């Protein structure tokens, strides 16, 4: 199980043991399909010993062994000479890592997988580098953010950094590396805070190139740069949620005025990322000081109103709709501290997204885990710790679960999340001198 560390999330060992490798003969697509079909055939409550026949247990064990064989083949494919085979292996593993827990299987093979990913990041094409950075992020999430994840992050961090800072590297690879640096630093958060400081500064150096110049003019974006700036800003804002009050105060003063100017960006996705980041920073500022106010808030609100009612026909209809929706939420929060709550259901449980910080964290995991995020919320001790859900539930499917009221669930989730945040901040406040 992931080892608990001082100042880190403690976790219990996942109860599900799944694994992979496919028959040598089938195509790569068939292998991926077989892997996922084995996952879907395995009970999500496999940690509970069913009172079934011995034959059923043997069938389950056989299915698990076949799945592990397929995973092993996918890992072997990462070392193949063919780029196509390596990419297929990366994609198969990405789907497997995002859809199920594989802690036991990966603990024994993490160094092998890390070595393969290091090789792909150093020598692979842009597409292979992007896929490898994504898979490494999933590996850190699978390992639960413990010593193993931190060790892997320290090993691959220099390579991820080099690709992110390389202007000749593909935009897709640089975006993937930005997300990997943000998420891996978040889940493995080192005790001394050094990794956090370095990651914040590195990501800042990327998106700050979108800031206005001395004349107050926004630079003309280069091809692909808005997407890169967006990925770096979102990764940075995830890490900002870990900062102690002393560091946050500095960041608010430095970035809020510049980000307000970036609301005029020509790229809709970057404008939305900027708006959400502004709302997050204001929320964090109000957590530090209830009287916190944005400089020139009247101008900010006027800009937000314009974006919330934008009817520019030159923009795609879906882009206009998405922009208006997001900026209405941002405006309501800035003016009235009103946040639109969202309820995420998984299994018999649910989690409430009732703050900009909680939304940023959830969105970051959803982006990397995709449709598997609900499974990880249900069974992954790392995510359950982050969202204050406690140990994974062990349920008897034959017994109806006693339901509690929506309000009681909301109070429990909010209290647990706040308690966890307070505890993490106490640890991080001890690092304030190095921040």
What percentage of the residues does DSSP assign to strands (E)?
Answer: under 5%
Radius of gyration: 22 Å
User: Structural class of the secondary structure composition?
Assistant: mainly alpha
Strand order of the largest sheet: 1-2
Helix content: 55-70%
Query: Regions with pLDDT < 50 over 5+ consecutive residues?
Result: 1-26, 37-53, 398-404, 430-435
Largest sheet: 2 strands, antiparallel
Global morphology: globular
Estimate the mean pLDDT confidence.
Answer: 82
Question: In angstroms, what separates the terminal alpha carbons?
Answer: 31 Å
Note the topology:
Elements: H1 28-41, H2 54-77, H3 83-99, H4 103-107, H5 110-123, H6 126-142, H7 147-165, H8 171-188, H9 194-207, H10 225-240, H11 245-261, H12 268-288, H13 297-308, H14 317-336, E1 342-346, E2 349-353, H15 356-369, H16 373-379, H17 381-386, H18 406-429
Antiparallel strand pairs: 1-2
């Amino acid at each position: 199980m992931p080892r608990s560390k001082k100042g880190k999330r403690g976790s219990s060992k996942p109860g599900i043991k799944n694994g992979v490798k496919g028959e040598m003969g089938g195509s790569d697509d068939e292998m991926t399909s077989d892997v996922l079909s084995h996952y879907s055939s395995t009970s999500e409550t496999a940690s509970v010993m069913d009172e079934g026949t011995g034959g059923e247990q043997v069938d389950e064990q056989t299915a698990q062994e076949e799945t592990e064989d397929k995973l092993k083949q996918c890992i072997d494919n990462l070392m193949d000479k063919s780029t196509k085979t390596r990419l297929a292996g990366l994609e198969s593993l990405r789907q497997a890592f995002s859809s199920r827990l594989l802690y036991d299987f990966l603990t024994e093979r993490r160094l092998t997988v890390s070595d393969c990913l290091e090789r792909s990041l150093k020598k692979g094409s842009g597409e292979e580098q992007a896929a490898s950075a994504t898979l490494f992020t999933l590996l850190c999430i699978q390992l639960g953010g413990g010593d193993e994840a931190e060790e892997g992050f320290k090993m691959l961090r220099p390579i991820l950094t080099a690709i992110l800072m390389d202007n000749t590297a593909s935009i897709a690879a640089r975006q993937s590396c930005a997300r990997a640096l943000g998420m891996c630093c978040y889940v493995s958060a080192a005790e001394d805070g050094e990794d956090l400081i370095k990651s914040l500064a590195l990501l800042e150096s990327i998106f700050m190139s979108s800031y206005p110049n001395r004349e107050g003019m926004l630079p003309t974006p280069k091809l692909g740069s808005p997407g890169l700036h967006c990925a770096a800003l979102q990764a940075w804002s995830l890490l900002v949620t870990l900062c102690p009050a002393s560091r946050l105060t500095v960041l608010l003063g430095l970035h809020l005025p510049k980000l307000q100017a970036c609301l005029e960006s020509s790229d809709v996705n970057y404008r939305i990322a900027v708006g959400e980041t502004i709302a997050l920073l204001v929320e964090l500022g109000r957590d530090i000081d209830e009287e916190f106010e944005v400089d020139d808030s009247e101008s900010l609100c006027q800009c937000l109103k314009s974006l919330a009612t934008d009817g520019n026909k030159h923009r795609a209809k879906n882009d206009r709709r998405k922009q208006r929706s997001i900026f209405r939420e941002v405006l309501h929060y800035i003016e009235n501290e009103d946040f639109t709550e969202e309820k995420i259901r998984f299994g018999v449980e649910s989690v409430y997204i009732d703050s900009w910080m909680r939304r940023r964290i959830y969105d970051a995991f959803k982006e990397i885990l995709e449709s598997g995020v609900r499974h990880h919320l249900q069974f992954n001790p790392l995510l359950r710790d982050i969202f204050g859900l406690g140990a994974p539930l062990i349920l008897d499917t034959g017994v109806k679960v006693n339901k509690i009221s929506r309000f009681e669930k909301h109070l429990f989730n909010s209290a647990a999340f706040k308690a966890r945040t307070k505890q993490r901040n106490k640890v991080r406040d001890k690092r304030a001198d190095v921040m």
